[in-house]
Amino acid sequence: MPSLSRGATKPIHHMGNPFNIGRIFYGLAMAGLGVLAMYYRTLPYIISPPAHVPASLLVAIADLFGALLILTGIGIALNKQTRLMSLLLGWALLAIGVFYCIPETLLINPHHLHFEEWENVEKELALAAGAFVIAGHIAAKRALRPGAIVFAITMICFGILHFMVAKDAATLVPAWIPWHLFWIYFCGAALIGSGLAIIANIKPGLIAALLGTMIAIWFIVLHLPRVIQADAITLNGETTSAFFALAYSGTAFTISGAAFRRNR
To answer: How far apart are CA 256 and CA 193, in angstroms?
Structure first.
């Protein structure tokens, strides 16, 4: 992962650059998750609260986590101290994933041998990878590569899950779209193929741009309507999932921007 070394080169700043689109998407998504954490006084559903912890302490943790997400997310979106904010967020999310989410799933979850039980861990690590991708892009070095690989691995895992739970996932496709099961398989294959291409460095600029576009379409077509239609009980979870999609789309666009930048 990238370090806090100085001497970073600033990226191209015109809005058409995929990096800037991705940076804004990712920053807004993280700030949005922070607002949710502070409003609902709870952590995102991908981070299961520890058992037997006082409610007051959980609220304090949620507020602190939310403030971190808002601070870093706004900084990233507005391009203010972007590398510092990205590294701060990336290391915080990575620490949560490595020292809490993974052990919690491995040691406490009785079904940890089931592949689908690791989905929330993969989501959390994908968010961490996004922060490192942004920080690595600004460094103008190969520092982006580790984050991009971690992100690509999570996309492959999500693609495999599409095939494993295809029939259930098909029910989430809006009714006005035909061939529900086909689109689940198509998107699953696209996620796997995109992840493999990014890892193998095969047309990463084009592939990552297509991946970011696909996930952005999900955000608009699938997630936003579900947020609008959600009731008070499901609104937090649906909005959280929508912000995840926006963050993943932003990460993919950032990888695309980095690849096109290298080819300039």
So the answer is: 15
User: Tokens standing for 2?
Assistant: 């990238």
Q: Which amino acid is at 54?
A: P
Quote the tokens at residue 208. 């990552």
Amino acid at 29: A
CA atoms within 13 A on the CB side of 104: 18
On whether residue 11 sits in a domain, the answer given is no
pTM (2 d.p.): 0.89
The total number of structural domains in the chain stands at: 1
Q: What are phi and psi of 194, to 5 degrees?
A: -65, -45
Identify the DSSP state of 116: G
CA distances from 193 to 46, 159, 247, 262 (A): 25, 9, 20, 22
Handedness of CA 153, 162, 18, 125 (dihedral sign): negative
Give the pLDDT band of residue 5 (cuts 50, 70, 90).
very low
Q: Do the beta carbons of residue 55 and residue 102 sit within 8 Å?
A: no
Alpha helices by DSSP H, listed for 2-118, are 18-40, 55-77, 82-96, 102-103
- Domain containing 202: what range? 18-262
The pLDDT confidence band at residue 2, using thresholds 50, 70 and 90, is very low
Asked whether residue 12 is domain-assigned, the answer is no
| CA neighbor of 39 nearest in space, from 232, 262, 179, 215 | 232
Asked if residue 2 is part of any domain, the answer here is no
Residue 232 forms part of a structural domain: yes
Instruction: Label residue 174 exposed, middle or buried (CB < 10 Å: 0-12, 13-18, 19+).
Output: exposed
